[in-house]
Amino acid sequence: MKRQTTPLAFLVLLLGLALSTLIAAALGESSLDLVDALTRPESQAHAILFELRLPKIALAALVGAALGIAGAALQALLKNPLADPFILGVSGGAAFGATLSLALGATALGLTLSQPCQRLPGRLEGLCAAVLQGSPTTLLALLFALLSTAVVYGAARHRGRMSPLRALLAGVVFNALASAAITFVKVLSPPDRLGELTSWLTGSLGYPQPGALLALALFEGIAFAIIGWHAHGLNLLALGDRSAGLLGLDVERARCILFVALSLLVAAAVSVSGMIGFVGLIVPHLLRLWMGADQKRLLPASALLGASFLILADLAARRLLPMLGTAPPVGALTALIGAPFFLGLLKRGHEED
Length: 353
What we know:
globular, mainly alpha, ABC transporter involved in vitamin B12 uptake, BtuC, 17 helices
């Protein structure tokens, strides 16, 4: 495939994101008159567009961008073209935290978690209570994701250095352990909560509040900045530790910073969307064929294509609602697309060997 120049490639990706947003806003579960929605603030179409569809599209874009950039960086960091953001164990920890929250009852858990806020003065008490009561599932998922990061990072260090292979193995083992714990929690959960648990574990995008979107955007922006700042270091790490060291990179320091930043990025995405897999595998591979492997181009491009990909995948899931009577979780659709893609990569790699 002929590789495109950077300006043209980014123009195509930006136009693709704009077009994906426009299509998702106009269609959704049912078609919507965008002209009516934009010109008549009192209309029902305006309320649907600005209160439901655009926040959902923004959430899909943020999560897709996070998974895309995490996949591109992780494949360079671990020197493994089949690496996926979920192999680090972060997803397992986040899934266990969210499962625990849903099983205990998110509302009751939010009230319990917000009790210490009563000790805060004035407006801080109200703000603290609103955050903890409004998103206990997200908070617990994020907390356990960070704990899993600490565990995997500790297990991956050997003689003061972090080994990519040990990190990979530790993540796989931790995900297996978290899966067993999730099964145990599901068995003990009330039957009326099993549907919500299943939907979250298979990956779904809800209708977020503006505050939640702002917090997610801020968190991901910080992680993006850290990873983007180390784009040159990722290029060097892809050459191997010895070559990177000879070229002046502090390999251990760069790897540790990137590992933590990537874990936090995936934790943020998983905590609000559940288990949406394969986005971080598919997007970087397609872009490497098109734009090359330079992380300075690949990272922002993966964010743009990841956002477009998940917006359209979520739209496809919603358009199945009239036929199926329910909208399947978007994570199920990305798995249906990603699994054959993954098998194709394996076959291609075997043939090249």
